Amino acid sequence: MKADIEAKAATLAIRLPDAGEAERADIMAWVAQNPVHAVAFARAESAWKDSERLKALGFDLPADEDSADEVIVPVETGKGISRRTVVLSSVAAIALAGLLPAIRMLGPGPESFSTQLGEVREVRLADGSVLHINTDSEVQVTFSKDRRLLRLVRGEASFDVAHDTARPFDVEAGDTVTRAVGTRFTIRRREDDVELTVTEGIVSVRDGTGQEARVAAGHGAQITPGAIAAAALDPQTIARRTAWQDRMLEFDGLTIGEAVAEFNRYRPLPIVVADPSIASLRVGGRFGVAESDKFLGALQAGFGLKVIERADGKVEILSKQ
Amino acid sequence: MHEIRAKLDWFEAVILPHQAALRGRLSRILRSSQDLDDTVSEVLARAWSTEDWARVDHGRAYLFHIARNLIIDEARRDKIVSFEQIADLELLQSHTILEDQLHARSELRWLQDFLPQLPRQCRHVFHMRRVQEKSMREIAEELSLSVSTVEKHLAKAVLLIMRARWQREETILGPRTAGTADARATDESGHRSESSDTRYSSS
Known about the structure:
Chain A is an alpha+beta fold. Chain A has ten helices and 19 strands. In chain A, the strands form four sheets. A seven-stranded mixed beta sheet of chain A has the order 1-4-5-7-8-11-12, with no helix packed on it.
């Protein structure tokens, strides 16, 4: 019964965009009949609409799916069956890969997770906590009976902490220790300081000198030896600081210099902005972490700037004269 | 008809994004999955039936409000939940703006992870339609299928996404005291003691 309504709602939701006046009215009449229809239709339509945003993310199916002639091979043939087996076994391999850290996590020694330049990685830990590790970063994980200790050796990571009162979750970044029980926060280790952003719950942070502060959701802190500067963050700042977890970069009034520095974290060869009058221009936008080319294209089109590739392979942004 | 369209837009933008959070929270209180399904359905149906819906813009808070009333009603009638559990429900408040924003991201990421699990042909047709933006007719021609078969694959993809989303429970990581209490706690810098730790971790 409920299943029938869901199936009907799915069919109507995909017909609606192409429907003529009369069919549209019929669909709306079905929706209006009762709340069960309406909720099912809204669920179907939102599944349909949300999938549109995948395009912007550059979502793609695995390469083996690209060729149309393979797709029409009937499943009964040997080829079809073997292809299906291949797909299944790769799914199994992914599932297994996901389990491996969990199993090894039971051992006493630290487990190290790192990312290469340009890579963003998600790791699920044995306790259910999830790490997002940003480009060129390393996290070491040691779980014991009474403590979950993580060391941010370099770079940036976000911690989605599973609730466990008996085992506090400590993240060390140099001398800075951030302790959580069940929250979500991001830590970026920079040359001179550590940047903390809390998106859920509350953490306590301690710097190298033993000074401590509590930082709650919606707040961030800049930690240097001897000083913890905490402040409320506006939603845009939080969005900007956490967008990398979706492999996105968000600029909202950043200068070109700052935006370029963000992209450079993911590039083997940096973009160079030597001219300070260009570097100080403010930009807004949302790009994939690997889309610095698109960003450069937008700068050329929107700001009248010139982008050249230098002899050393680096890309430089210049003014057009 | 315009009214229905506007209400659908509201429901999809304001209410539905919190479906997994609702289920996640209710799952702490309702033990059987049948009760859970029924309650989530009922809460969403009541949300749809809201008369002055245009004035509701905090979907999460609104859904929890409906859920709480529903559970209290049922507790009085059937004693399916204890009042202790209702107190638990009261405790669960949310930082709305922040969560809304984070939500949109995690939802997209979830969808991205889920799509490869669709049956092969279904996933392929869905990808062609939604990502490559081909029309049903173009897809039908390219794959030598009938338009109605393409439509069936698309409908199936949507149905499987709907159902998987329905089962999703947004995990509640740790207890959440109200945003104001958290904010106050930040202001008192330093002096973290074990007792204040327990204050934030008892659930």
